[in-house]
Structures are given as C-alpha cells and as structure tokens.
C-alpha cells in the first residue's frame, strides 16, 4: 500500500517535520514564481493573443500563495507535529490550518473574478462581433462572492443548511421589497441576450431621450446626451420601452434635407447644383451616392428632398446645418428662388361717414365716434 503524504513525516520529530514542511513550501513557492510562471510568461509572449497574457498575470498570485500556504496546512496535519505541539490539535487547526485554507480560497476567488472581468473587457475591445455586456461581469462577481462565502462557512464548520432555508424565506421577502431592483437586474440580462445595444451605441427611447451608452450596470444604463448630460435609465424601463439603436446594424445614417424651389425652375439644373453642393460637404459619405428626389407639388413650390449618408448618427444634425447653409448660398448665387407662401388680402364691406353721405344717409346716422376720432 502506498503511504499518503501525511504519513511520510510520521517518523520525524515535531521540529524535523516542521522544518521539512516549511522548506518544501518555500521551495514550491519559489519554483512556482521563478520557474513555472517565468516559463509560462515566456511562452505567452510569443503568441498574438492577449488572453493568455491576462490568464498568466492573473493566476500568478494565487499559484504562489497556494504553493506557500498549502505547506502550512499540511504542517497542521502531520501526526508528529500535532502530537508534539503545546496546543491542542483543534487549536492548531483553528490558528494555522483553516486560516491558511481561507486565505487560499479568498485569493483564488479574487483571481477568478479578476481574470473573467479582464477577459470580458478584452473581448469587448474586439468589437461588436464578440459583444459581452458588462452585466455578465457583474453577475459573475456576485456568483464568485456567494460561492466564496459558502466555501468559507463550510470550511469553518458553520452549518449552512439552516442558512439556505432562511435565505429562501429572506429571498421572498427581499423579492417583494426590492421588486424594482430585481426587475432592473433581470431587465439588464434580457437586454443583453436580446443584443439591444452595447457601450458606444447611440440610442433613442420612445419618450425622446437620446444619448450614447457609456455604462451598462446591473440596475441601470447610463446615457451621455448631446448636451453632455448623464442620464441614468433603469434597465426595467429600457426593457419595457421602445429603444431605437441608431448605431446598429451599421453606424452610417441617412440625412434628409427637405427643400422647395419655385415653379418654373429648371429641375435638371437645380438637381445638378444640389448634388454638387452635397458632394462637396466633407461630412457626407461618397457611398452611397447623394440623391435628389422630387417628392410633391406644394402650394407655392416644388417639394424636393436631398438624401445623403454620414458616418454616425451624431453627425446628422451638423450635416443638416452645413447642407442647409451651402444650399441657401448656392441657390442664391444661381438665382434659383426658394419661395415662401404669399397671400393677397382684399378688404371689403367698410362703410364710413363720407360713403354714407354719398349714398344719401343722414350725417346724424353716422358713427358719432368718427368725429371724436378726428
């Protein structure tokens, strides 16, 4: 029968077993730091991916700490040491064994949370093709926290079964008390799986609120408006409302510039001039090409619409401004009239004192206020 590692030190004295285990722990930690980690770093430096660099850098601390503290835990399990120390085995476990395991659990929990969050951030940088909503990082952080707390309670001998029952009852109470928070949480998850938007997208809500998404949290989403004002919108409200993502599926957006020209205008000349003005604007994309569309016959003008594309929804307003200015100047130089509604007003039915006298009416019947007015 092969002896277990804990029985290999059975023939040693307490001092010899202690020194041996501590030496092995220090050597293991040093080997992990200067051999394993260094070789792993040298290997990942030759690859093009950044993910393995994140993995190695994040796992360095827990590997070294585990190699060092595992020896302390093993030391508390060596029979020679347990029987020779001045304190009881229970106190030895409470002072050295369980604390060392607790530190290992905490270090690995922190590393697991860090490596996943860094990987998610790195994947987000890759672009929309690998879109990981930040809410995934928040859910993972909560899961790691709950798992590490449960492990520590089990490690220190705390019975968690009653706690689970109490947690169930408390969960129901908290669910009713914090139903808005729970709704926001699941609303954020639904928005992620529906791929409604991601950070950097420009969205418009059905109530008119519009802005660029700069943060997606567990409870809410933060928008930066064109006025540089931060607007925090609960995820439940976003999930229940109509959201227009103007940055998807492509960032380019079409600009419509309505314009009217007078009846009798040479439409070929006008269309050529308008397209030349639009094509000269730097904000306008060359492809798709700008177009001029004759929409309708208005009351006093021929109603046209100039269509072009810009690279991003936030450039539409500025493009409209620049195009309106340029078209106004160009049409004025070309003597092409931009008409406005004109009305002829005819005033009739007014009867004054002179008209009444001419028609044979007595002057006394005229309006007495007329003399006062004169």
UniProtKB/TrEMBL annotation:
One of its GO terms (molecular function) is mechanosensitive monoatomic ion channel activity. This is MscS Mechanosensitive ion channel. Residues 180-246 form the Mechanosensitive ion channel MscS domain. Coiled coil: none annotated. Keywords: Cell membrane, Membrane, Transmembrane, Transmembrane helix. Belongs to the MscS (TC 1.A.23) family. Residues 255-338 form the Mechanosensitive ion channel MscS C-terminal domain. InterPro entries: LSM_dom_sf, MS_channel_C, MscS_archaea/bacteria_type, MscS_beta-dom_sf, MscS_channel_2nd, MscS_channel_C_sf, MscS_channel_TM-2. It is found in: Cell membrane. GO terms for cellular component: plasma membrane. It comes from Halorubrum californiense DSM 19288. The chain crosses the membrane at residues 20-40, 61-80, 100-120, 132-154. It is a multi-pass membrane protein.
């Amino acid at each position: 029968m092969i002896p277990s590692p804990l029985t290999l030190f059975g023939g040693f004295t307490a001092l010899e077993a202690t020194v041996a285990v501590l030496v092995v722990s220090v050597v293991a930690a040093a080997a992990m730091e200067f051999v394993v980690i260094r070789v792993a770093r040298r290997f990942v430096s030759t690859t093009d991916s950044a993910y393995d660099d994140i993995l190695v850098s994040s796992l360095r601390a827990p590997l070294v700490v585990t190699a060092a503290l595992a020896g302390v835990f093993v030391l508390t399990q060596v029979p020679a040491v347990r029987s020779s120390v001045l304190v009881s085995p229970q106190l030895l476990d409470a002072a050295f064994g369980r604390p060392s395991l607790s530190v290992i659990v905490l270090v690995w929990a922190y590393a697991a949370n860090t490596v996943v969050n860094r990987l998610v951030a790195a994947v987000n940088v890759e672009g929309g093709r690998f879109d990981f909503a930040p809410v995934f990082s928040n859910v993972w952080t909560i899961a790691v926290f709950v798992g590490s707390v449960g492990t520590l309670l089990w490690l220190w001998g705390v019975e968690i079964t009653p706690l689970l029952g109490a947690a169930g009852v408390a969960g129901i109470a908290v669910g009713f008390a914090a139903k808005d928070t729970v709704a926001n949480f699941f609303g954020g998850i639904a928005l992620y799986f529906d791929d409604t938007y991601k950070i950097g997208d420009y969205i418009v809500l059905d109530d008119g609120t519009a802005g660029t998404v700069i943060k997606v949290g567990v409870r809410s989403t933060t928008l930066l408006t064109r006025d540089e004002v931060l607007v925090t919108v609960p995820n439940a409200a976003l999930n229940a409302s109509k959201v227009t993502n103007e940055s998807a599926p492509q960032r380019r957006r079409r600009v419509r510039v309505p314009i009217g020209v007078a009846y009798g205008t040479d439409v070929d000349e006008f269309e050529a001039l308008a397209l030349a003005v639009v094509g000269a604007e730097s904000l306008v994309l060359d492809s798709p090409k700008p177009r001029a569309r004759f929409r309708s016959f208005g009351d006093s003008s021929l109603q046209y619409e100039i269509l072009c594309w810009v690279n991003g929804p936030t450039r539409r307003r500025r493009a409209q401004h620049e195009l309106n200015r340029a078209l106004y100047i160009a049409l004025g130089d070309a003597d092409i009239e931009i008409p406005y509604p004109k009305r002829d007003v005819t005033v009739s039915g007014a009867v004054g004192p002179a008209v009444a006298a001419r028609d044979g009416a007595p002057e006394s019947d005229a309006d007495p206020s007329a003399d006062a007015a004169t």
